[in-house]
Design a protein that fits this description.
This protein is α/β, with parallel strands linked by helices. It contains seven helices and four strands.
């Protein structure tokens, strides 16, 4: 089983000054140990964006280098647009990156690990699997 880890989970684990012991962090640790974690470039970009201190930026960049980017295809972008359109018709809004995460996961039979409630709203309208 492969799991595309959303920015919200990575942020909890890597960008917070104080890491607390919680279920999401423990689940991420297990996924890492089982080599089930998938990273995509847009998630890496979101994580690194907004870090103004160069040392902090370099530290996080170096930690993330352990995870190679899963390739994103033209079909993934098309699927993301379809997912966006389907959700929008139902009154559900989301970011382009969130829908790209959904598309990559759906097209590659992956779960999405997130604590962002938007994904639970998306799941009512598009075929994604969320790690519970």
């Amino acid at each position: 089983m492969k799991v595309l880890v959303d920015t919200s989970i990575w942020s909890l684990a890597l960008r917070r000054k104080i890491n607390i012991n919680n279920d999401d962090l423990n689940k991420l640790k297990s996924l890492i140990l089982l080599n089930q974690v998938v990273m995509i470039g847009p998630v890496r970009q979101e994580l690194l964006s907004g870090i103004t201190n160069e040392n902090d930026f370099d530290t996080l960049k170096n930690k993330l280098e352990a995870y190679k980017d899963f390739p994103i295809t033209t079909n993934d972008y098309i699927t993301a647009a379809q997912f966006f359109n389907n959700c929008r018709k139902q009154g559900v809004q989301g970011s382009m990156i969130d829908f790209l995460i959904c598309a990559v996961a759906a097209n590659n039979d992956m779960y999405i690990f997130t604590n962002d409630n938007d994904f639970y709203n998306f799941a009512e309208h598009i075929p994604i699997k969320l790690l519970g």
